[in-house]
Amino acid sequence: MRGMNAPGPTLAWAVLLVAGLCEIGWAVGLKYTEGFSRFWPSVWTLAAMALSVVLLAWSLKTLPVGTAYAVWTGIGAVGTALLGMLLFGESREVARLVSIGLIVAGILGLKLVTK
């Protein structure tokens, strides 16, 4: 995104959120590519990967790298785990849900302490 100014803090967080959502998209999309043997799921998955990384990079113009990367991966982990439960019947045991909740708490904590 050469030539684009650094986003303000609010926009940087919004862009990071969208990057995290794209990460969820590509992580779940990998399941549908069947090892990149299906054309359209592979195209959409690769596009989501690229967009996710580009948006993360743009948010890093404003946000600290450690915070942004932790939030990005946290959004991806939580979203992918929840969609795994909904779409693929993955385990919904209490310990797993509590662990996901802890990741969400960490994401919110990082947001609250980052200016």
What do these coordinates show?
22% of the residues are buried. The protein is mostly helical. The two termini are 23 Å apart. The radius of gyration is 15 Å and the shape is flat. The chain has helices at residues 9-33, 39-59, 65-88, 94-113. The model has no long low-confidence stretch (mean pLDDT 95). The chain is built from four helices and no strands.
Secondary structure topology:
Blueprint: H1 9-33, H2 39-59, H3 65-88, H4 94-113
Helix pairs in contact: 1-2, 1-3, 3-4
Largest sheet features:
none
3D shape: flat
Mean pLDDT: 95
How large is the count of helical segments? 4
**Strand tally:** 0
| Backbone structural class | mainly alpha
H and E string: HHHH
Relative strand content = under 5%
Helix content range of the residues, please?
A: over 70%
- Rounded to an integer in angstroms, the radius of gyration calculated over CA atoms is 15 Å
The poorly predicted ranges are: none
State the separation between the terminal residues, measured CA to CA: 23 Å
Q: What oligomeric state best describes the polypeptide chains here?
A: single chain
